[in-house]
Amino acid sequence: MTDQQTATIDNTDNNLSQLTDQFINGTQKDQLQLIPQLMRMGEGGWQVLMKFLQASDENAVDIVRGKVYGILYQVKNTITEEFIQTHFPKGIISLKSQRNIDYQPLNQLLVEQKFQDADTLTRHLLCELAGEGAVQRKWVYFTEVEQFPATDLQTINALWLLHSEGKFGFSVQRKLWLSVGKDFTKLWPKIGWKKDNNWTQYPNQFTWDLDAPVGHLPLLNQLRGVRVTASLFSHPAWSQENS
Prior knowledge:
Elements: H1 3-25, H2 28-40, H3 43-55, H4 63-75, H5 78-87, H6 104-111, H7 115-130, H8 132-137, H9 142-145, H10 150-162, H11 170-179, H12 184-190, E1 194-195, E2 198-199, H13 227-233, H14 236-240
Antiparallel strand pairs: 1-2
Helix pairs in contact: 1-2, 2-3, 2-4, 3-4, 3-5, 6-7
Domain GUN4-like: 96-236
GO cellular component, one term: outer membrane-bounded periplasmic space
Protein name: GUN4-like domain-containing protein
């Protein structure tokens, strides 16, 4: 090995060590920014992220954990695939349901950043929570929303939060709604559902990636009025989360 090759390896090790320290001790914002840099370091960076994932609180809805899991999943390398299959074959949070609904398909779509498909599935899952009548008509009454189990809403919301770097989810939309004094006319343009008094047209005018406005997804059927949305945002699930 030449002196130049040795120096290159030493520099790489030093850079990895510095990045690791910055990542472990950084703020959430810092960590999100450092994840791609660690990934570019190759296997050494992957190992740092894999150890972080194993050591962090498995019960926490932590968007850094979500980002790490998603980016490791997307590598499609033997090392990362074996790690995921061994330690997190069903994702990084428990997919709890009081109605015995399988949320693994939603988890999979969101991990893969297939936000439009995940949005469609989310609407179907809300109908499933409401019952067979809602499944057949493909939308829900606000009175049905009131009966949704908090556990299920929290699971759906947690998956959207985890795999969007905290940008999407019912709780995100609810906080924005509260910030504008529960005024839906102010909320719709804020989250990109209305512009210049015109409704955003489905599906082509919506943004199906992380460049979307905060709270843009998942979509609710705003054209039927606000009672369903208000019922969802007023659900006890969110007070139980202290959000």
